[in-house]
Structure formats: C-alpha cells, structure tokens
Design goal:
Elements: H1 9-13, E1 23-25, H2 29-36, H3 42-52, E2 61-67, E3 74-83, E4 86-95, E5 100-111, E6 115-123, E7 128-137, E8 148-155, E9 161-163, H4 167-172
Antiparallel strand pairs: 1-6, 2-3, 3-4, 4-5, 5-6, 6-7, 7-8, 8-9
Amino acid sequence: MKSSKKISLQDFLDFFPLVDLPIALSEEVIDQISRVNKVFPEIAIAQFLSKWEKEIDNTSEFLPCCQLPSQDDFYSIIYWKASLMAYEFILATLDKEGNLIQKKVVAGVVSNGTSIIQSVAKIEDDLSIHIMVGEKKVDDLQYNPLNSKGYYMEILPTGQLISSKDEDELWQEKNINNEN
C-alpha cells in the first residue's frame, strides 16, 4: 500500500534514541529495547527500510534500537529485524541527506533448522566493533566454545563499514572453524 505521506529524515532518526558508547548488542537486550522504543510506523518502513532491505514480507518485523553518537558526515543507526528463523541487529550508516552509505549485520541469531548461529557485538567509543560468533547444532546438549570465532568491524570517518569478514560469509559460513 502506497502512501503520499512522507516523514523527514529527522523524524525517522527520532525513532532511534542516542546512546553513549560503549554498548553491547545481544539477544537479551532486545526485550529491554522493545519495552522502551516505539515501533516504526508503516510509512517509515516504506520510505526508508524498504529501500535497504532485500526481503520484506508479512513475517518481517523491525524495531529501532539506537543511534550512535553523531559524526560530521553521517549518522549511524542500529535496528532489529526479525524474520523467519532470523533475528538480526543491523548497523546502517546514512549520509546527512538520509541516503544509505552501508549496512551490515553486527549481531543476532539465525537458524537453518539443524544449527543455530548466534553472535554478540560490542561497539566501542572509537566506533570499532568486536563481534563474537558461535554455532551450535540444534540436537547438541552442550555448547562447544571451539565453535566460536571473533570478528572485527570498524566505522570509517566516511561512514563506510569495514570488517575482518563480510557479514554474508559470517552468517552463511557452514562451519565456523573451517574444518573439512
């Protein structure tokens, strides 16, 4: 459903409370966020998120999480996306006109039905991001820490996101330990 109404970039950014760094993102914090933050109205999803997200269907849910401290040339926001068997914290950088510079998954939980991949992230004062990813088979009773791996990401002064591993590989990698 198309609407002729529009919201300003500032109205959109107002959905994201400013936070002090460092912050940690994990499965546990989404409950706290959902109790405090307002949900996106349909117009915000249609005007902004639908341009960035490849797949939005009737099972997709979005929740604004936070806005990182302001930078000279860009805004950094984090939103949560829930879809079938995936819950993701997504970091997006926007230029001052509201155009997407880049977005990447920084934390979340995904499953293919046989294994669960879970990650947590900590965003530091210098806009560096430390991510820990672990994988567990659904039928395993205990978590094996050898199935964990750390990643590093950074927000550059241009708003570009660089990482030690692309998030597509991070989430879709079959075996985190790269064992054959």
